[in-house]
Description:
Blueprint: E1 4-8, H1 15-26, E2 30-32, H2 33-43, H3 46-57, H4 63-74, E3 83-86, H5 92-104, E4 111-116, H6 119-133, H7 141-155, H8 157-164, E5 168-173, H9 178-189
Helix pairs in contact: 1-9, 2-3, 4-5, 6-7
The structure holds adenosine-5'-diphosphate.
Amino acid sequence: MSRFVVLFGPPGCGKGTQAARLKDALGVPHISTGDMFRDHKARRTELGQRVEAILAAGQLVPDGVTNDMVRERLGRDDARKGALLDGYPRNTDQAEVLDGILRDLGRAVDDVVVIEVPRKELIDRLVKRGKDSGRADDQDPKVIENRLEVYRAQSEPCIGYYERTGKRLHRIAGVGAVDEVTGRILGALGVKG
Length: 193
Ligand code: ADP
């Protein structure tokens, strides 16, 4: 089942966890812009040093930088048949750029999966992940609040964008066991797990 799937939802909704499971079922690479930025940061690349403070504050990396990174990634061979995009797009300008990138490749976004989780549970999960993983942007309650606000103000409008542009949009309850959520997503996508 090769296609381009956008995995969408607020910080802490489980995009990364689900993507790791879905990529094998879908047979496409998992492309996480957050992971890519953290990898740059860990390797102390020029890009990593440029984005470090932005990540720590829970702000969005400037679109130009993010779009170029995704364009390069989607141009690689392993993404020819499809990809699971996690954390991108994060605003409607990025959503339009993604449409353009895929158009240039003769493809399009096939499905948008929105993982929905109540705000209180998101905060609990992010605080726990901060303790378990030490991730810099999960340490400070103010940064967590800020990321949720950035999501509400800048990212959530992407859902309306995808509705307007007629994409297949699947709203999935992101609560319950991890396996159950995976099952719901695969069911919505019509893929056997
Ligand atoms: P989460 O969704 O839990 O906040 P991510 O790993 O998806 O975590 O993203 C971590 C950070 O990486 C974001 O807060 C932001 O600073 C940066 N980032 C990731 N994706 C994008 C994007 N598409 N545009 C701009 N910044 C991004």
